[in-house]
Write a structure and sequence with these properties.
The structure holds two protein chains of two kinds. By secondary structure, chain A is of the alpha+beta class. Chain A is built from four helices and four strands. Chain A has a single domain, classed as Ubiquitin Conjugating Enzyme. A four-stranded antiparallel sheet of chain A has the order 1-2-3-4, covered by helices on one side. In chain B, strands 2-1-5-3-4 form a five-stranded mixed sheet, covered by helices on one side. Chain B has one helix at residues 33-43, and strands at 10-16, 22-28, 51-55, 58-59, 76-81. The N and C termini of chain B lie far apart (48 Å). In chain B, a hairpin with a 5-residue loop joins strand 1 and strand 2. Chain B has one helix and five strands; from the N terminus they run ββαβββ. Classes of the chains: A alpha+beta, B alpha+beta. The A-B interface holds A 17-23, 25, 27, 44, 55, 153, 161-162, 164-167 and B 14, 16-20, 52, 54, 56-59, 72, 74-76, 78, 80, 83, 85, 88. Chain B: Keywords: Nucleus, Ubl conjugation pathway. Chain B: Residues 11-86 form the Ubiquitin-like domain.
Chain lengths: 167, 89
């Protein structure tokens, strides 16, 4: 079955090179020996224009299992990322990438990496606070919008889009 | 870098801006990117210095070629307007 996951991911990569949403980055990780690891992708998701997340470019790591695409991949923002639906270890809690229907999962094998990353972009400014993954962001979102916004802007300052390419 | 030019090897490169509007270029694998940047800026009536180009999130330099960047036929690049840093109101 390993061939299925890798074949699909190679095709995902091919499509992405031809066409991807503006400002997004998604590529399989390059291993120390220079070869490509199709099972881990290093991605960048821009904050949507017109939201408090604008100006940020947020690193997202997608980890695929051999069970992909039947199993959803796990997606991570950096550890400690401020957002109601991001766990302490950075894992993103989003129905689109949850393959357990009993837990509200909406994963389908046809979901593309492009859709996952666009879903994460949307989640940034539209948190689902009824199912919180971290306390701080969830509490501030409900109780103190100004403080919440300051934390968001701090995330943008930590991961600025215009640093891109300097590396 | 080898200076043997692969005979007649060309590829199509697509440049997309933030509105996903695209311009396609047919180039040699050995063409310097600055030529493509210049042509793009002219087509879009932009100042060449006002745009930056990213391939897989990495800024593309004018002296690089599609071959240097490992580009393949049909690959797309992002054109982004240079942002000036500012402060929060």
């Amino acid at each position: 079955m390993a061939g299925l996951a890798r074949g699909r991911l190679a095709e995902e990569r091919k499509q992405w090179r031809k066409d991807h949403p503006p400002g997004f980055v998604a590529k399989p990780r390059t291993k120390a020996d220079g070869s490509t690891d199709l099972m881990i992708w290093d991605c960048k998701v821009p904050g949507r224009e017109g939201t408090d997340w604008e100006g940020g470019l947020f690193p997202v790591t997608i980890v695929f299992s051999e069970g992909y695409p039947n199993q959803a991949p796990a997606c991570y923002l950096p550890q400690g990322f401020f957002h109601p639906n991001v766990f302490e270890n950075g894992q993103i809690c989003l129905s689109l990438i949850n393959d357990d229907p009993d837990l509200g999962g909406a994963w389908r094998p046809a979901v593309t990496n492009k859709q996952i990353l666009q879903g994460i972009q949307e989640l940034l400014d539209d948190p689902y606070t009824r199912s919180p993954a971290q306390r701080l962001a969830t509490e501030l979102h409900a109780a103190d919008p100004e403080a919440y916004r300051r934390h968001v802007r701090a995330m943008v300052a930590r991961y600025p889009a215009d640093r891109e390419g300097a590396a | 870098m080898a200076d043997v030019e692969p005979k007649g090897e060309t590829l199509n490169i697509v440049i997309k801006d933030s509105t996903a509007a695209e311009v396609q270029f047919r180039v040699k694998a050995t063409t310097k990117m600055e030529k493509i940047f210049k042509a793009y800026a002219e087509k879009k009536a932009l100042n060449a210095g006002a745009v930056k180009f990213l391939f897989d999130g990495q800024r593309v330099q004018g002296h690089q070629t599609p071959a240097d960047l490992g580009m393949e036929d049909g690959d797309s690049m992002d054109a982004m307007l240079e942002q000036l840093g500012g402060s929060l109101p």
